[in-house]
Each structure stands twice: as structure tokens, then as C-alpha cells.
Amino acid sequence: MNRQLLEQLGHLQDVYGSACRLPITMTDNEGKQLTASGSCGGSSVKVLAERFLASSHRAQILKDISHIQYPIVYQTEYGFKVIIAPVQAGRGNVSYIWTGPIIERQKRELIYHACGTVRDSAYIRLALMDIADTPEEQKQEILEKLSQMAGICSTMMQQAGMLNATERRLDELHRYIHYEYAEAYSTEKATELMREMLELEFSGYASLDDRDGRFRIIHTSGGSPYHSLDGCLFSPGEGFLGQAAVAGEARLWERIAWDRRTDFFAERGIWLKGLIVYPVKHHQRVCGLLFGGVVSDGMMSSHGVALGSVLAGAFARMLGSKHMEKLLHRESAHLPLLMEVSGALRARRDIEHMMHTLAEAVLTIVQGASVSVLMQRGQEERPSCVVTRGPEGDSTACKLEFPLLNGNDRMVGILEVCLNGHGINDGQRASLTMLALMGGLYLEDRLHREGQSDPHQSSGFPCTDSASALLLGLKLDNPLTSREKEVLEHVLQGLNNQEIAQTLFISAHTVKNHMTKIFEKLEVTDRTQAMAKIYAKDVRRLRLRA
């Protein structure tokens, strides 16, 4: 308890001591004195108070009455009485106001004889004779005054506690924002700080998975009962957390024990009564959620709620900064590799070795993937040179196609990467794109040296001015629908299912259904075969025109 508060309580104590005509003191919940005893009531009263209400005596009394909620009159073993009033200081802390002793006329003789057995009994008896009787009306008046004082003290101590807590939170937040924590970037530090600042029972962080558009809880703070949330998934709009993600704004829910949207937590043994969620944004897009809650009947701190918004904003900026650092590192990490591949391609004497070099470079950039390099040599209508490396590709796995272009933006081949359940970041995608461009130029140069290509004419897989033009002359027994053509156009542009879904504002599942129908109509089994067949048809169409 700070010095300023103690001084204010001391002044208040003196005012009420004068009104009650008795000395008043305050103690903590162990009986230790917080304020000095007042001088009201005379020296005789003070003698008895110091003799019979020492710290050890008060501690013993508090063991018997620690549960009281309002002022009481307590009779000591020697017969005289004291009035004790509890002061609720917040967060379960209780202090106590003491005043007395109170001598009732009908008990005076008994008290006189009881005090005869103690040390310095003569001195004590003289003090007793100097203390006036306290009538019942005065005793009730003292009870009312101490009740008022307890209420004022409670407000003062709670406000002081809130102020101190806010200062501590601001200091923690300041240190967090200014990177004084070595683990400032960690979700562990952010969730723990949020739990402390908002006085929550648990907190956590959910991160958006760009592959399926769902959120995954990657960390919780508050103890083992809440670790059941780790790894759990939810979709935008699903439950409280999903709705906060859709809204893109901070949300506070209280008294929600019977709300069915708490089922997400109840299924994991967490009976939620209050929840607060802060969206974490990067480039105006929700990339995660900081959340926390309570399972007891306590209310969340209004001061902490405001500070939580500041914490979420700081955490978002840190994540953005960290993301940029990783992106720069990723994009620069493969530059030495690309330079080595460039030298290796220049040194290779034949097409097949060059294709193997490209495939090995892809496996270095995207570990765990499988890769195919397809080329068309001479005047053949189908790919005549195929190199495949890596584990056998999963037919349902996401596949990326990168065109191998010559200097005239004509396609000489295709670089297909099957991710096999692995993700790919922007840096890897940029490196693969650069690798495909570099490979197309070197392959076209080698073809020209072998006399199989005219650099000013179409070579290999022709690339018409747009994907739409490629589909214009496509004749099928079972024609493609307009939506299927749209999807196929984006496939020819190198987009995967998720990117097509975002472009056409449909779900990835719908794109997958369209792809299945497209494969059936083209009589192929995968994207690479589909692209090869379309390009082959375009070759025949160009020859007929010639």
C-alpha cells in the first residue's frame, strides 16, 4: 500500500475517531497495523487498546471472524468489547477497521475482576475507572459510522489498486512496444501480457491458415485446463471467435453462460462466462485473433479492455515487421542458388541435363515436393521430353504450373510442381517463377543451337496472346460451360485452386468440382495433361492456318 494512500486513510481515521470519541486503527487481514492508532478517547482508552489489542491478539480474533461482511461488536475474553468493520479492497483483499474498547455499565464489575489477573493489574484497573460507560444508543451510532468509513476506505483502496494496476500495465505495455522483452515477437508473451492486463483467467492466440481459410489456436495461457484449446480449428463466422474474425473489430461478451456459441469451449471442458476478442490485422486483413475469457462470475476490467486494444495493435505491428523480415530473408535466401543454377544451365551440353538441373533446383527450393519438366522438341504435337524428380505426387495434392518462356514470350515447356501437402510462401513462389523464366531462356537457346528452333517463330508449346484465345478453338464433344472455361483460363495462367476461388469469389471445393468435370470432358487425369492437350490443339490450329 503506497504512502499517499496511507496518509489519506490516516486523516479519514482521525475524522471518524473524533466523531466516535474512540481511537481507530486499520490492519491487514493478518492483524498487522496499517495506520497508527488515533489519540481520540483519552490516554486510558489508549492504554487498554494497546494492552489487549496488540497484533497477536488481533490475529487470533481475525481467525474467528474472517468471513464477516459488515461491522460487528466483538467481546474479548476480558469482557470489554471492540467494533470491527471489514474493508473490501478489491481482488479478494480485505482490511479491517478497529475501534474500542467499549465498556458497558452492566459489565464493568466483571471486567474489573477479570483484569485483576493480568500483569500490571493495578494500572489497568485505574485506566478502567477513567473510561466512561458506552450506552447502547452510542454503540449503534458507532456501528453506523464505522460502516460509512469502511465504505469510503473500500472505494479509496480499490481506486488506488486500479491506479497502481493501470500504471503497472502501462509500464509493461511500454516495455513490450519498445522491444525490451527478448521474446516480444512471441505469442506466448502477448497472450500472457493480455491475461494479466485484463485480469483474465485464460487467453490465447489463433492464427489464420491461408491454405483453407480457417483459424487455428496456436497457444493458450492460463494453465493446463485451457491447453485443450491448442490446435483447435474454427471457421470465420463460427461461434464467438469466428464472428469476431468476420466483424474485424474487438468484441466483448459477458454473462454468456447459456449462449450456445460457447459450445466451442464447452466441448473442451471450458464453461465460459465472459469473452473478449481482438482481431490482429496485417494490411487491413485479419490474420489472427487475440482472445481471453473468464469462467467465474467476475467482470473483466474496463481499464484493461482499453489497454488490450493497444496491445493487439502493437502485436499486429510486430507480426507485420516480423513477416517483412522473413519475406526479405526468403526472397534473398535463394539468390545464390539461382546464380549457381544459371551457371550450371549455361554449362550443360544437352536438353535433358538442363531439365534435370531445373528439377533439382525446384526440389532444393520446395523440399518434399515432386517436380516434372515437360518440353516439346521438333514438330511433335505432344511433349516428347519429360523429366520427373521427387516422391510420387499425390493426385489430390495442390499443383503449380510455371510456363517456360523464350525471349519472345513463347512457351517452350512447362515446369510443374506438386506440393504433396506442403505449403509454399511468397519467397519460394518468386524463386520458382524466376527459375522458370531463366530455364525457358536457356532451353530455347540450346534448342536454337541444336537447330530445332527459330527464335522468331513458335517453338514447343505455343503461348497465344491470352488464355481465352487458347480456348477459342477448343472443340469438344461435350463442350465446356462458361464457368468451366473461366476456371480453365485461370489454370492456364498458372493459378492454383485456392487462387482461382478467390478470383472468382467461389469456394475451393467448387473449383475442385469444376476441375473434375473439365478433366472428364478433356479426357485427361490432371492439370498438366490438360494444359498439354490444349497447347497441342493450338499447335495443330496454327499449322492449319499456315
UniProtKB/TrEMBL annotation:
This is Response regulator transcription factor. InterPro entries: GAF-like_dom_sf, Sig_transdc_resp-reg_C-effctor, Tscrpt_reg_LuxR_C, WH-like_DNA-bd_sf. It comes from Paenibacillus chungangensis. It comes from the Bacteria. Keywords: DNA-binding, Transcription, Transcription regulation. Residues 473-538 form the HTH luxR-type domain. Gene3D superfamilies: 3.30.450.40, Winged helix-like DNA-binding domain superfamily/Winged helix DNA-binding domain. PANTHER family: DNA-BINDING TRANSCRIPTIONAL ACTIVATOR DEVR_DOSR.
